[in-house]
Amino acid sequence: MLQYLIKRLLMMIPLLLGITLITFVVIHLAPGEPTDLQTQMNPEASSELQERLRVYYGLDQPLPVQYVRWLGRLIRFDFGESFALDHRPVLDKITERLPVTVLLNLLSILVILAVAVPLGVLSAVRRNSLFDRATTVLVFVGFAMPSFWLALLMMDWFGVRLGLLPISGIKSLGYAYLSFGGQMLDRVQHLILPVFISAIGGLAGFSRYMRSNMLEVIRQDYILTARAKGLSERVVIYRHALRNALLPVITILGLSVPGLIGGSVIFETIFAIPGMGKLFYDGVMMRDYPLIMGILVMGAILTLVGNLLADISYALADPRIRHSQGDGQ
Amino acid sequence: MNRNLLNLFAAVLLMFVLWGCNQTEQATLPAATPSGPVRGDTFIEASIGDASNLLPVLSSDSASSDISSLVYSGLVRYDKDLKIEGELAESWQVSPDRLTITFNLRKGVTWHDGAPFTSADVLFNYQLYTDPKTPTAYAESFRQVASAETPDPYTFRVTYNEPYAPALISWGMPIHPKHLLEGKDITKSPLSRQPVGTGPYRLSAWSAGEKIVLEANPDYFEGQPYIKRIVYRIIPDQSTQFLELKTGSLDFMGLTPLQFDRQTDTGAFSRLFNKYNYLNFGYSYLGYNLRSPFFQDKRVRQALTYAIDKQEIIDGVLLGYGRVATGPYKPDTWVYNAQVKTYGYDPIKARQLLADAGWVDTDNDGIVDKDGQALAFTIVTNQGNDLRAKSGEIIQRRFREVGVDVQLRIIEWATFLKEFINPGNFDATILGWTGGPEPDQYNIWHSSKTGPRQLNFINYKNQEVDDLLERGRRTFDQQQRKAYYDRFQEILAEEQPYTFLYIPEALPAVAKRFRGIEPAPAGIRYNFNHWYVPEDEQKYSR
């Protein structure tokens, strides 16, 4: 097992290098440079200044040199300085945005799991019933609905008309003056709409997935055996069938690890949440290369780690895989 | 972000985006309470983007300059009538040869950390802006300076190589503190997140991407402002901002024409807010690339202007909240020339002019042609500005009616600059300029500014205009200057290198509890320090 782990970890290094090289080239293919955006259409900026800025950012060097320099810094865990006007370290900019994004994504995955698993199981057990059809329609409506539109409707309804929930932001202006309980309540109130909206789009995929897994399992011989032993339907479904149907969920969870640091631009824009999606989008629009690369590298690492975790936990959860001592997949 | 960039674009032409005002406010102002102005309360407004850097020398986005304008002061500023008045400078003298300006600085002014403000700070700023190591976009006007000196702690003297009319207002740039910045790498300075200025407000908290909080400066040299606290909430979406405004969570917002006209006419809204409208500085235009063979003949450009119904664009796109532009200046400024040639909507004349220039429809396909080539071209504009895209569609239809075939392409900003504007690789473009009271247009129209990445990207070259622009910026006498700029406007009107489209109005809504708002040519925000909320109406006690 340990040997396997080391092998997998070592494999990640060339993969990661390849990913960074490709992304580095691709983002530099996009037309426009950060210096253009800072100085263009500005009568106070001369061409000489443009050149000065290019030298300042190291953009006057050939692309391979820029890449090697960037890589050299990365090895020392230095993501570099943002090309945005604030000149702040990329790492600072990412770490201040990360917690709220991770919190939102975790909550929304939890909500999705909590709702989609029972929904999928019930749909499978009562296959083709009215309940099955109704949930199918509903989750697909939720999936197809533009989230920004639904978000605005809910904000208008709960925020403006009913005045029950705050419209945007992550905490109230008077947050600092609230008691601890009040602060918690305030946080929760601000999270309700964003979590609900982000969960609703994910429900469809997950509940459908759960449903088909469950249908698959129910057809297996061991379920027939369980029924033949005279076990109650409850035990058959929830102990024998559900456990097996849940196994592939591990893979999905592993794959959603990189998604934890990704945010949706539209969503963060509407709710005025200072998260990763907006940071990345702004970075791309301003051609802030170090920031873009920083976020992509973190995403790449998390994707690789997520895959590894999924494989490992799959092996731990499923004795068949563990005993075969295979390479995970 | 796109909007943010556009804002940046709108803010760069002049660092201070000042509002001009020519119309009276819609709602009547409540009379001041007999008790008079009192201190307290919080003013909450929203910004679509976070500030980038609160060292004004390094930033060029509108959120940063909005905040910097409250935290820092310059030597001079514009007053409510857009005349230059002293801020950190008590008075100034311009030498008879127009080459030297001597500023007499206010005494007893302190930085937010208590250190005294002196002429050494001003000299340091001159050095800071012109230091090659400072990555600033604002060095150009300070490069005209030949020498700067400080005869004593409260006198600052600056000498130019030749007379330079925009010199005085260029000293309205925010002054940075020497004692905290000297000898340090400006790009690494912590002051970019914790600014220290001499202005009416101090930064008290900044949560990145969420909000910026400013507190009134009790030691401000013109007296502590009445409103105790300003909160800038970062809300990137305008619809969300508007919902927040409706619940009263925001006290101020610049409305869109649709919101102003159709969505705020309810009793509930007018109980909480006053709305104002007045002309902005800045205009939109359709610029013709004069390198293109299509636009060599001025009759073609005149014809295209005749073919556009500008009022239709204003009614359709701005719901009427704008004015027809006839040139680069705003109608209520001293420099505006009302006598220039104007072009009403006249498709018949447009066709006639096109025919005069040799463009007639010989093959009956509905498109005019000449020497076998049809008059068909592409208008490019940037993504993220709905007003421009919509104007383009209206123009497209009107051009088609006079036999001109136009395609519209909307392109992401960075690509737009890199692939189209910089290499001069476009036929025509819809863009806008934001200006200010200073009429110098040298950078946009002078033939020396047609190089790559310069502002005269339509390649306009006219010897007389060059001459007028050079004289204009060397002349201090307003009467004399006006004569030059009047002629400049006449030439532009005749030649139509741009079809000047419209000047949009600013449409702010302000919570009713704020008193002391006096609309003036400078807009409404110029006297913010004198706004107040009567004690019994104050909403935020902490």
Q: What characteristic shape of chain A results from the CA principal axes?
A: globular
Oligomer: heterodimer
Question: What is the level 1 CATH name of the largest domain in chain A?
Answer: Mainly Alpha
- List the secondary-structure elements of chain A in sequence, H or E: HHHHHHHHHHHHHH
Strand content range of chain A: under 5%
Q: What is the β-strand count of chain A?
A: 0
Q: Which percent bin holds the helix content of chain A?
A: over 70%
Write the layout of secondary structure elements.
The complex is a heterodimer of chains A (329) and B (542).
Chain A: H1 2-29, H2 34-39, H3 47-57, H4 63-75, H5 90-125, H6 130-144, H7 147-161, H8 180-218, H9 221-228, H10 233-255, H11 265-271, H12 276-285, H13 289-317, H14 319-324
Helix pairs in contact in A: 1-13, 5-6, 5-8, 5-13, 6-8, 7-8, 7-11, 8-10, 9-10, 10-13, 11-12
Chain B: H1 2-12, E1 42-47, H2 62-71, E2 76-78, E3 84-86, E4 89-94, E5 100-105, H3 119-130, E6 145-152, E7 155-160, H4 167-170, H5 178-181, E8 201-207, E9 211-216, E10 229-234, H6 238-246, E11 252-254, H7 257-263, H8 267-272, E12 273-275, E13 278-279, E14 283-288, H9 298-307, H10 310-317, E15 322-324, H11 347-356, E16 369-370, E17 373-374, E18 376-382, H12 386-401, E19 405-411, H13 413-421, E20 428-433, H14 442-445, H15 463-474, H16 478-495, E21 498-506, E22 508-511
Parallel strand pairs in B: 1-10, 18-19, 18-20
Antiparallel strand pairs in B: 2-3, 4-5, 5-7, 6-7, 8-9, 9-10, 11-22, 12-22, 13-21, 14-20, 14-21, 15-21, 16-17
Helix pairs in contact in B: 9-11, 10-12, 15-16
